């Protein structure tokens, strides 16, 4: 893939999204559209990635400047104009150019590899990615000749009554032979109705010049573009349902797959149970035999070992819980490391943020935190220590191994407890 350059068309403003931020920065689960596409391209082995940007370009550059190179489209004159600007920045080292849209986040690395392989093996001037779908409305159709060859791509508004029956659509991803792309891209003429240059017109141009244009297909779940908030919700649902299915096939019980939201970068061990209303965000790692929820929220950086219980209305962020530890009701743990066999009582809170900085809470093996405990970080609760119900352990007032504290602020009552 070293001689393949990818170009992501990400200049549009997303009019139908009715948004003040670039469409490609909207989130699917815990990652932006652009991040998902970039990740799939890199996983496919493509190292050289351009993004053509325009609307609020500086926002995109600030987030992705380490991951790709940028080309600014001076005026938003359509996909053909965007790719023409990208070609101007390329060198002679590219043999092939993969072009994909910044709003199609579900195309897999396998599909990207397939389209690149087809271009190389067939020595095609252009390979189109197509898909056969039940409802092709709003998509450009693939019109084929009598021998099954690609004749042209026709946009929805230009379709004849007969062509509207076609269910094979143009996904908007292509792989071009670089030299011929550079030669013919400037022949695209402006569409007078839209005042834009349509990239799809290059197919007709290549065909008229006797060039080879072929197609490969992808699964119908991959083609979806995000052009509205409804599309965004649909893609999110597909990501969550796909992850739930994957986990259930791997031995995880999900009581109601339609009511949980598990990021596709999360991992869950077998024989764990996920109850309804649970939200698992980002690269969360959950061990074997855990019970999560209902209505729990596990945020990025959470690591749960085996047989951990996280109950209803619990939020955990950037924290690690050891084997057999329990945090069952209405609690918040942030920047916390708890050992094994820890009991964290209902309503326990770690105060990890002082308005400027975040601090850690450390809880040793076998510690017992009573209902309503508040731990003000930084603080250490030693192994087998006990924090009485309703106590507030203030910062840097560490509780030693096996000691018992209680009160507001918490004080050591170990000896008093022994005598009563």
List descriptors.
420 residues; alpha/beta; Spore Coat Polysaccharide Biosynthesis Protein SpsA, Chain A; UDP N-Acetylglucosamine Acyltransferase, domain 1; 2 domains; 10-stranded mixed beta sheet; 7-stranded mixed beta sheet; 38 strands; elongated
CATH class categorisation of the largest domain:
Alpha Beta
Number of helices: 8
List unreliable stretches of 5+ residues.
none
Structural class, by secondary structure, is alpha/beta
Q: Can you walk through the features of this model?
A:
- The protein has 420 residues and is an alpha/beta fold.
- The protein folds into two domains: 4-217, Spore Coat Polysaccharide Biosynthesis Protein SpsA, Chain A (Alpha-Beta Complex), CATH 3.90.550; 229-419, 3 Solenoid (UDP N-Acetylglucosamine Acyltransferase, domain 1).
- Helices cover 20% and strands 30% of the residues.
- The protein contains eight helices and 38 strands.
- The strands form eight sheets. A ten-stranded mixed β-sheet has the order 14-17-20-23-26-29-32-35-37-38. A seven-stranded mixed β-sheet has the order 5-4-1-6-10-7-13, with helices on both faces.
- A hairpin with a 4-residue loop joins strand 11 and strand 12 (196-197).
- The longest helix is centred in the middle third of the chain and has 21 residues, at 229-249.
- The radius of gyration is 28 Å and the shape is elongated.
- The N and C termini lie far apart (74 Å).
- The model has no long low-confidence stretch (mean pLDDT 94).
């Amino acid at each position: 893939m070293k001689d393949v350059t990818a170009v992501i068309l990400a200049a549009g403003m997303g009019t139908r999204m009715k948004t003040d931020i670039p469409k490609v920065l909207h989130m699917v689960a815990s990652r932006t559209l652009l991040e998902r596409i970039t990740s799939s391209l890199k996983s496919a082995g493509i190292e050289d990635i351009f993004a053509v940007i325009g609307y609020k370009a500086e926002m995109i550059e600030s987030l992705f400047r380490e991951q790709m190179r940028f080309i600014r489209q001076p005026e938003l004159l359509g996909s053909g104009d965007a790719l023409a600007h990208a070609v101007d920045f390329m060198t002679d080292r590219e043999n092939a150019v993969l072009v994909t849209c910044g709003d199609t986040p579900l195309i897999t690395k396998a599909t990207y590899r397939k389209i690149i392989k087809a271009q190389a093996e067939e020595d095609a001037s252009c390979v189109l990615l197509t898909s056969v779908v039940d409802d092709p409305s709003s998509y450009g159709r693939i019109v084929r000749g009598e021998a099954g060859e690609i004749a042209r791509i026709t946009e929805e508004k230009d379709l004849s009554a007969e062509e509207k029956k076609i269910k094979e659509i143009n996904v908007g991803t292509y792989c071009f032979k670089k030299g011929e792309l550079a030669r013919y891209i400037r022949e695209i003429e402006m569409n007078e109705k839209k005042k834009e240059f349509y990239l799809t017109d290059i197919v007709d141009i290549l065909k008229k010049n006797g060039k080879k244009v072929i197609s490969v297909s992808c699964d119908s779940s991959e083609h979806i573009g995000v052009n509205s908030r409804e599309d965004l919700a649909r893609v999110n649902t597909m990501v969550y349902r796909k992850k739930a299915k994957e986990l259930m096939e791997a031995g995880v019980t999900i009581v109601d797959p339609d009511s949980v939201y598990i990021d596709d970068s999360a991992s869950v061990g077998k024989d764990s149970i996920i109850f309804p209303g649970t939200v698992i965000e980002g690269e969360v790692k959950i061990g074997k035999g855990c019970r999560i929820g209902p209505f729990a929220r596990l945020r990025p950086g959470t690591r749960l070992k085996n047989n951990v219980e996280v109950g209803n209305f619990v939020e955990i962020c950037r924290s690690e819980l050891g084997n057999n530890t329990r945090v069952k009701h209405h609690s918040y743990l942030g920047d916390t490391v708890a050992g094994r066999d820890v009991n964290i009582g209902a309503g326990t809170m770690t105060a990890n943020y002082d308005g400027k900085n975040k601090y850690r809470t450390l809880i040793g093996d076998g510690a017992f935190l009573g209902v309503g405990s508040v731990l003000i970080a930084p603080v250490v609760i030693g192994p087998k220590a006990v924090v009485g119900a309703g106590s507030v352990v203030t910062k840097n007032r560490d509780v030693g191994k096996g000691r018992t504290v209680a009160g507001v602020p918490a004080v050591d009552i170990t000896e008093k407890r022994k005598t009563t």
